[in-house]
Design a protein that fits this description.
The complex is a heterodimer. By secondary structure, chain A is mostly helical. Chain A has 14 helices and two strands; from the N terminus they run H-H-H-H-E-E-H-H-H-H-H-H-H-H-H-H. Chain A has helices at about 1-30, 35-40, 45-55, 65-75, 100-135, 140-155, 160-175, 200-225, 230-235, 240-265, 265-280, 285-295, 295-325, 325-330, and strands at about 75-80, 85. In chain A, a hairpin with a 2-residue loop joins strand 1 (about 75-80) and strand 2 (about 85). Chain B contains 17 helices and no strands. In chain B, helix 5 packs across helix 8 (about 120-160). Chain B starts with a helix and ends in a 6-residue tail after the last helix. The chains are: A mainly alpha, B mainly alpha. At the A-B interface, helix 1, helix 6, helix 7, helix 8 and helix 11 of A face helix 9, helix 10, helix 15 and helix 17 of B.
Amino acid sequence: MLQYITKRIVQFVPVFFGVTLALFLIANYMPGADPIQMRFGERTPPPEIKAALIKQYGLDRPWYVQYGKYLVALSPVKSVNGSLQWTGPDLGTSIYTGRPVTTILAETYPHTIRLALVAIMIEIVVGIGAGVISAVKQYSIWDVLVTLSTSILVSLPVFWLGLMLQYFFGIWLKGATGGAFYLPISGASSPFFPDWVHMILPGITLASVSTAYAARIMRSQLLEVTTQDYIRTARAKGLSERGVLWRHAMKNALIPVVTFIGLDLGAMFAGAVLTETVFNWPGVGSTISRAIFQRDFPIVFGSVTAMLFAVMIINLIVDVSYAFLDPRIRYGGAGE
Amino acid sequence: MAGRVNDVDTEKRTHEQQLIRDGVHDVAGQPGPMPPLIEEHVQHQTRTLWGDAWYRLRRNRLALVALIWIAIVALAAVTADLWVPRMFGDPLTINTQTASAERLQGPSWEHPFGTDDLGRDLFGRVVYGARVSLTVGVLATLISVLVGVALGAVSGFYGKFLDALIMRTTDIFLAFPYILFSILILAVLPPEMRGIVPVILAIGLLGWPTFARLFRSSVLSVKENDYVAAGRALGASDARLMFRHIAPNAIAPIIVYATMSIGGAILTEAALSFLGLGVQPPGVSWGQMIESSRGYLVTQPLLVAWPGLAILSTVLAFTLLGDGVRDALDVKMKD
């Protein structure tokens, strides 16, 4: 197992450098990318100030020196006056408000994580549940229903699903019940509803695609596992169908599903950009889309960087915990 | 026909095959009963691999419906300039004379989908939006396929260092949802450079790793076949081995995944346009239509509903067609 974990961590190194290099290249060398101009937004800096800034930020140095400086800026621990101190990563400052991007992230991230947790709970309960039902009752009306709705869900634009839910549960239902019953469609809190009610529609929207995939994987895994010999043995021993399913089949069928749910957190961040925009959810996602419209590039760049780092770390944790979950890896060495 | 050629070894035939030969003779004009099942069997024998796949695809009703729907959308998109402006008015320009009177209308004979907030016909706009979506879907996938197949071929055929380098690169790409990277790349671009071309390039150039991996693994399995070794022994060049012997037998998973990923590219384009990073007004795309009519959700929800239904039906069609192609080509793929 140690060998497996070491291998995963070693594999993490090129991913880290690849991603930071890609980010660095996008920010500095893409057509339209001008690090000085980005600090000025729509205004045009006077040429002498621009020249001075280029010198100050070292933008006339070779690319590898700049890349090195970028990595240092990202590092949460820096040397201040000769001693190492925890300063937090430097992700730049917003053009419009002048506030550090890290401060903005610290305010918005908890909201995004809260929403993501709700979505993951929906994904686990509904996704696994629907997958199990459609596998156990294969070819039944329930199976057809699950297969059909998962196909539709993965073909839906997430933001459109959000808008349609807003219309039916926030606007149409309000009109139909004369204002007696409806769901909030904007923001994370209001005087009219308890906070958790605000999470229902955005939670469902964010969970939709992942839930559909989780259900599909659960179904195919369970169907595959139940054809294996040890399941036949368990049945031959006289175990009840329920015992076979929960004690034997689920144990193996769940592993790929759990892995999928873990690795899918990255996709959930991408979905959060769209979902939060639709529901005005005060998280990182809506901050990104607002910054895109305001052309506040440091916020877009810093927030996406933070998301990519979160994805990287989560992937590593999922990979390592996989070793604890799956005895075939725990006892089998390097795996693959 | 096949029966006549094989007449020589009739002795060796099983009873079943004998029946088939008889069936063929019946087709050739000799009298006798001809069970339809046998005729079908004969057709199987004379079809090529691709003909066989097409035959199986046609018998998959869901895939056939999907194919017909894609054909309808594509035809409407390609011919849009010929009939849309004449029947429904120009969907891109605003008629300042009639805009205030015609805005936010419900469906009618004149405007089957109603009109938008600037008095333009929604049906016409949805048809024009199909041009962007299909162009992005097809071209972005084409770029991904070309880059992915080329790198996958190098990776699988030559192995060693190049293989390791290319595969580690795909690791990096696949570790992240590529929409995050495309948001970054497109957000850097100044607004006047935004449009359909950067979107195609971003989606296309970020989508190749899956194709590279698929093609690499099928090249790896195909190149162990005896006929490749035979080709090599006969002195065939690497290029000839690759293009004549390996590629045709390794391409099936690529075709399946490409079909599905056209739908994925359409979804990504819609998302990017929704964030204001795609086609800019007065151009029109489905995602951008949804973005610009969000504010009318209360007064005229159809404004948001139509482009969304267009995306849903088209993407679903590509997914179902992909499933059908997978079954027809008998490719095994994970969910």
